[in-house]
Design a protein that fits this description.
By secondary structure, the chain is of the alpha+beta class. The protein is built from 10 helices and 9 strands. α7 packs antiparallel against α8 (197-214) and α8 runs antiparallel to α9.
Length: 296
Amino acid sequence: MILSEQNYDESLRRLAAFSYHAIAKVDFTDDAYEPVQVYDIDWSNVKDKTYYISNWFKWLATPQHMHKADITAYKQFTDLDNIRRTMANRKQIARIRYRRNLDGIYRWRMMELVPVPAENGHVCATMLVRDLDDPSLFAQGERGGQAWAGLFDELTGLGNKYTYENTLKRLEETGSPCTIVYCDVRGMKRANDLFGQKEGDRVLRRFCSLLRKHFRMSDCFRIENDEFLVVLPNVGAQRVSAFYNDVHGITPPPASVGVSATDGDIPLEQVVAAAQRDMLVDKENIHANFPETVYP
């Protein structure tokens, strides 16, 4: 089967939702790229525009956006003449790891350039950028190790309470704007009581699929049995609103959701407490309209 342009784009978007921070289609011959999906950036207003890939590479290769120790190697890797030579046979995948500077917090990323067929002899590729600090990228075989178990929840693969508290501490030090989403999953206890723990686990996994649809897994944490927090540095309300509407579009809603935000001038503990209060109000409203039922 030959993929149409529409099916190809949809396949890339699905990849982005589960494994990748960013995906773009790149023409190195024309020095152009078209973003398919990039987290933390709203491309809705520029969806059909094309950009110079060399400018994007130069923008990233600065101390403001990348660890200083990685800049030289990154510049060599992203030199367009070098890429054209490397990918001329359209068979070799090119990769580089670097540390991305996000408000003073460094996260390991991997850029992969996957050659794709193109007309007129152009050198083209799909550019995939992985967030290597994302716990959802850990291999299943690595789970259960002491280091992994100390940082991540075994059932969901999300960061645990320890990881959440350290993330909050780092953000507090930067004073960055931040949005907190506080979620309480409904129906888990009843599912456990009526059908056993496996059914309760299924309730939690299905809720995690909603989180994955809207957020990076590295921003999501399971802090209690049925309580989840999403910590979003420099993220506006639009994506949170989409998540809230998605949850409440299900009958009955699978979780109660509270949201609070700061411009960096309020201690994050207070922001979390405000989000929890907002969640409890939502919980009361849901219980007033729906009985306690198992998430279908």
